[in-house]
Amino acid sequence: MLRSFPALMLIAVAAAGCANRYELEYERKLIESQNVKPENFKPDLLAFLRTYLNNPEGVRDAALSEPQKLMLDTERYAACLRYNSKNSAGRYTGLNNHLAVFISGKFDQLVELGPVTRGAGEGALQPLREYCNKASYQPFPELQQLRR
Q1: Burial classification of residue 126, based on how many CB atoms lie within 10 Å of its CB (0-12 exposed, 13-18 middle, 19 or more buried)
Q2: Are 20 and 79 contained in the same domain?
Q3: How many angstroms separate the CA atoms of 133 and 98, rounded?
C-alpha cells in the first residue's frame, strides 16, 4: 500500500494542475466575454447621473470621450467624463473628471478623479487622471439638459 502512495500523490498533483489551468482559462474567457464595447451607453450613464448628482439641473461644461479599452484591475472599456455641477447648497463645484467603467457593454461604475486642475503625482488615481487629461472629449449636451 505504501508503494502506491507516491504514484497517487503524483496523479493528484497532476489533476490539480489541470483543474487550475482549466479554471484560469474559464476565468479568462469570462472576462473577455464581459469586455464588450458599449454601443448605446449614454442612456445608462444619464440614468445613473440623474440619481448620483445632488442637483442634476444646470450642469455646465459637460463633455464625454468615446469608450476605449483601458487596463484597470482587468482590461475594461472606459470613458472619461467631465462636468461642472451644483452641490446641495446650489453652488457650482468646479470642473471635475470622472471615469465611467463598462462591463458587458453596459455602464458599471463611475470613478471620481477629482478637479481637472489637480496637480500631478497625487495617489493611486493619478494614472487614470493622466488618461483622462489626454482623452478626446466631445460635448455632452444630454447631461446639461438633465432634469430631476
Answers
A1: middle
A2: no
A3: 11
Whether residues 30 and 46 share a domain: the answer is no
Say how far apart CA 144 and CA 42 lie, in whole Å: 13
pTM over 0.70: yes
Instruction: Determine contact, residues 77/69, Cβ cutoff 8 Å.
Output: yes
85-95 per-position pLDDT tens digit = 998 888 999 99
Q: Which of 116, 87, 113 is nearest to 100 (CA)?
A: 113
CA 66/CA 112 separation, integer angstroms:
18
- Cα separations in angstroms, 27 against 22, 30, 77: 9, 5, 18
Place of cell 452641490: 87
Q: How many residues does the chain have?
A: 148
Torsion of CA 119, 133, 80, 105, to 10 degrees: -120
Q: Structural domain tally of the chain? A: 2
